[in-house]
User: What shape does this take?
Amino acid sequence: MASFTQFSRLDGLVLKKEYSYTEATGPFYEYLLKGWVHSQYRNITLQNAFHRALHGIDAHLLHTSYHGGYSFVGSLANGKFRPEMEQYACSVASALSEWPQPQLSTR
Assistant: This one.
């Protein structure tokens, strides 16, 4: 998963580490997919990186709502899940459609 990290200006220590699927991190996943497709699905390194990223999204960011059972993509900040879906996260469905794993986890 792509992450966004904030550092202290005073001492360089990590203040906040966040994993999400937003306009800042989403293009990372898109370019992994585009590179893999452009290689005619032959570049194993891009394929493995894309599948690891999707596995991370599935394992940590993809959850199911208690009301209606709808799936949504949240964010993970400092080890704590936040159930807030960013607008850009709507495009995660197209990335997941390229994943050869037929079932996703349900949480």
Remarks:
- The chain has a mean pLDDT of 79.
- Helices lie at 26-38, 44-61, 92-97.
- The CA atoms of residues 30 and 95 lie 7 Å apart.
